[in-house]
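Tokens in:
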């Protein structure tokens, strides 16, 4: 990677027909963890999320609520979406709304450019459309006339629309994925995309004529741009697509584009791995480096969704387990790329064993012992070869896994180190050593080695659990001596002996309190 290229990650932009549920939060938390990890690698990072506000689905929801679509979007964005991301401690750098002028203007300019290049033509669309998916459907996508995803009847459209010559890019797309398999992951997702491409792809209708909630087609203002064509462009409009290279937008575009990772759920893979790169190819712009499709959170074996009344709001979980346990749980429990069922029992079990017992207790025991045996000060530097060498391996393993979006692998490598540190304390029995005044050095060594292990754990787990690790960092006295936890570099974590002897520890809040019986 060129040193001036920013690591640019996006989430899908979410429909504002309803409030966020944990499926949406799953994607955004994953993006937040990965971008925090890259920031701690010392890279320049840009993390974008936002909302998808046009189209029939949002328009109909607004009508059902007796407000204009714009008023509806404003309310949902300000009262539901933005507060939700703040609650989950999401550190996005920008938030794009597709109703913003900065987006609308750049979308129109982009479409005009494709028309001038000869990739847009007028035609008639006749066929099924699912408003839930906002998608022109193929016969194979339906089950007895109903959308397989939403289980609802589709509309039959017959409209004079504008079309994008999507089919012209099929050979180039196939070639692209053959040459760059990492551009679509996991492998199952790439196989699906290749099969779809090899099965033949038709041109895409990119406008709608029967309603007006959208961006007008610049040369035919009685039509609005198809919501997906509009929405996909957010990734580029937010960073200055098409702006003069000397302008601020143009410079931003040059330093961020192409996106390094588009995180998506597997339901919207084709839009991102077929339509989106074809649009970019048509405009002669670089295509994304990676589209990663994760699996679904299932409830009762089905994709959790608000429309099927299985949606769980993040707060239903965070009220009980806290925000950091929420951020931790889904990435730890479900291999990223596979579906996973949510269960309160499993979350409860992991919270208790991994967070409260393994991690939280290790930290509270250490602080209590330093207070009791060392007057609350970090003792002299000592190095346990077993712990310090394991840490070198753990950091390498965790880093390789995290940058490959294997969150489960990354977090479990870190938690294995946590287990080892617990094992070390149990084996060394510092409370027994403390009974013998002749063994003070030995006692101090054990406590220093444990403190250093916890220092490393705090830094490595910071991207996953930013608030809890901050509390721990302060109680270790590290804020005052080593500076901000977010500034600690992954590459330096395994350098043993960083906690300065003499720094004062304090008992902080309990990191993972015992859960109230429900
Ligand atoms: N607006 C489009 C995306 C446009 S991106 C240019 C859209 N929005 S959505 O709100 O319906 O859902 C977006 C994403 O939410 C999904 O792709 C997925 O990332 C996430 N999820 C929604 N339900 C989910 C689950 N049940 N499980 C996991 N992720 C889910 O599609």
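Residues out:
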């Amino acid at each position: 990677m060129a040193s001036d290229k920013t690591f640019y990650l996006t989430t899908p932009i979410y429909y504002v027909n309803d409030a966020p549920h944990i499926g949406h939060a799953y994607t955004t938390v994953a993006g937040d963890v990965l971008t925090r990890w890259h920031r701690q690698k010392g890279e320049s990072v840009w993390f974008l999320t936002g909302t998808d506000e046009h189209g029939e689905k949002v328009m109909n929801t607004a009508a059902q609520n007796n407000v204009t679509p714009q008023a509806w979007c404003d309310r949902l964005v300000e009262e539901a979406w933005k507060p939700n991301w703040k609650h989950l401690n999401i550190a996005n750098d920008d938030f794009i709304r597709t109703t913003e002028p900065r987006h609308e203007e750049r979308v129109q300019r982009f479409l005009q450019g494709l028309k001038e290049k000869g990739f847009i033509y007028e035609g008639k669309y006749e066929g099924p459309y699912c408003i839930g998916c906002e998608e022109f459907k193929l016969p194979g996508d339906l089950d007895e006339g109903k959308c397989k995803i939403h289980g609802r009847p589709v509309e039959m459209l017959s409209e004079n629309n504008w079309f994008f010559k999507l089919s012209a890019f099929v050979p180039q797309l196939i070639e692209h994925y053959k040459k760059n398999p990492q551009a679509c992951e996991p492998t199952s997702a790439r196989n699906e995309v290749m099969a779809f491409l090899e099965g033949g792809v038709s041109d895409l209708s990119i406008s709608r004529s029967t309603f007006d909630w959208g961006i007008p087609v610049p040369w035919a203002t009685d039509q609005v741009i198809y919501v997906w064509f509009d929405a996909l462009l957010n990734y580029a409009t937010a960073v200055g697509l098409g702006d003069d290279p000397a302008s601020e937008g143009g410079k931003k575009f040059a330093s961020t584009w192409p996106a390094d990772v588009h995180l998506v759920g597997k339901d919207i893979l084709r839009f991102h791995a077929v339509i989106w790169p074809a649009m970019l190819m048509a405009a002669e712009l670089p295509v994304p480096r990676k589209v990663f499709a994760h699996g679904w959170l299932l409830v009762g074996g089905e994709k959790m969704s608000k429309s099927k009344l299985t949606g769980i709001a993040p707060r239903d979980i965070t009220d009980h387990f806290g925000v950091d346990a929420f951020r931790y749980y889904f990435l730890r429990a479900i291999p990223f790329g596979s579906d996973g069922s949510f269960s309160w029992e499993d979350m409860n079990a992991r919270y208790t064993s991994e967070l409260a017992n393994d991690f939280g207790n290790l930290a509270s025991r250490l602080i209590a012992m330093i207070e009791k045996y060392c007057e609350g000060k970090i003792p002299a530097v000592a190095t346990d070869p077993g712990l310090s060498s394991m840490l070198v391996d753990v950091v390498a393993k965790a880093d390789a896994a995290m940058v490959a979006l294997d969150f489960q692998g990354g977090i479990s490598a870190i938690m294995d180190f946590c287990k080892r540190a617990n094992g070390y304390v149990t084996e060394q029995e510092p409370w027994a050593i403390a009974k013998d005044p002749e063994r003070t050095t030995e006692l101090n060594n054990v406590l220093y080695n444990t403190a250093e292990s916890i220092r490393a754990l705090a830094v490595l787990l910071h991207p996953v659990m930013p608030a809890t690790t901050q509390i721990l960092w302060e109680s270790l006295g590290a804020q005052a001596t080593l500076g901000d936890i977010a500034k600690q570099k992954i590459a330096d974590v395994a350098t043993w002996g960083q906690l300065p002897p003499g720094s004062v520890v304090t008992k902080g809040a309990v990191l993972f309190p015992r859960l109230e019986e429900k």
